[in-house]
Amino acid sequence: MVIAVLWAALLITAVPGQFLSQSASAQDETEPAGATQGMVDAADIQSVMNDEPTQELGSDQPSGIDLLSLIARGGRFMIPIGLMSMLVVTLSVERTLSLRTEKILPRSLVNQISDLAATHETFPPSTAQEICIENPSPAARVISAMLMRTGQPLGDIERTASETLQREADRYAGPVRWLTLAAAATPLMGLLGTVWGMIVAFHESSTLTAERSRSEQLSEGIYTALVTTLAGLAVAIPAAILAQYLENRIAKLFHRIEEMAFTIAPGLVRFVGRSRMDAEGQLRPLDNGAPPPMAIHSPPPVTSS
After folding, report:
1. CA 120: distance to chain centroid?
2. DSSP state, 63?
3. What's the predicted TM-score (pTM) here?
4. CA proximity to 105, closest of 139, 129, 76
């Protein structure tokens, strides 16, 4: 009985499949030959989907990056960076003009002082002082400070020259320190703008509308935020290079002044303890034989009996 039921189930499942296969073969025989040519194979569909779309000639190309649009996207954080860039340009031009060799170490001063200092035994401090007055410059002020110490020990004269040289160098190096500050602070300003822009981008991505995707919002916010870092580096790198260049130039020029000053110092040895220079630039003999000034004592008050 069980075997009969199994045979009946097999017949029920086999007959419709055979009938369908026979009908399909009959339909294929009745269809025209050109109908099969119009059908699209699955492999052809897959190849079309994998192919990259070709761009038509004359279509719109992606636009380049505009400098003004970048500055506008930076927002209010671009204002201090812009002010710092103006400071860098102004100080660079001013220091470059101020540190010309002719303004620090005039050629006429160098030539005339070198001629006078060629022979230490006949070096005239009064003439050298007049030359310094005629050529006002940092080198002239250093040499004049030495000449005003004529008659004092050589160590005091050299110490005066070193102190005056240091003051003049600090006066010229002061504005250069602002360039160093700009080179250090401007990238931090750009980084501050970038961090703030990233915070705003992620905040806005948490409240998206249906028209925009999260990736689109984040990419636009990050693009805007990185503009301030770019601007900060664009200002800081030239500022650092210019600051280093100007510092090296100051050191080189004032080193030449120091060399010239110490070539003059031996010519003042013969005046030690014998002469001094007054405020008018004239040598006056020292009166070593005069007694020291005596203290004047007032008479004691008279008391009445």
Report:
1. 48
2. P
3. 0.65
4. 139
Helix axes 154-205, 214-264, angle to 10 degrees: 180
Q: How big is the chain, counted in residues?
A: 305
Greatest distance between any 2 Cα atoms in the chain: 170
Q: Can you list the residues of the chain whose pLDDT is less than 50?
A: 1-38, 40, 48, 52-60, 62, 289-298, 304-305
Non-local CB neighbours of 81 within 8 Å, separated by 6+ positions? 74, 186, 189, 190, 193, 228, 231, 232, 235
Rounded CA-CA distance 217/198 in Å is: 11
Query: Is the CB of residue 238 less than 8 Å from the CB of residue 97?
Result: no
Q: Which two tokens stand for residue 295?
A: 């203290």
Residue tagged 């003439």 (tokens): 127
Six-digit token string for 301: 């008050």
**Would you tell me the crossing angle of helices 125-134 and 138-147 to the nearest 10 degrees?**
150
Residue 282: both structure tokens together: 């004239």
Bridge partners, residue 275, by sequence: 285
CA distance 109 to 139: 8
Q: Which of 69, 73, 72, 84 is nearest to 235 (CA)?
A: 84
Tokens of 137: 């410059």
Question: Which residue type occupies 102?
Answer: E
Residue 247's alpha-carbon distances to 19, 113, 196, 242, in angstroms, are 100, 26, 35, 8
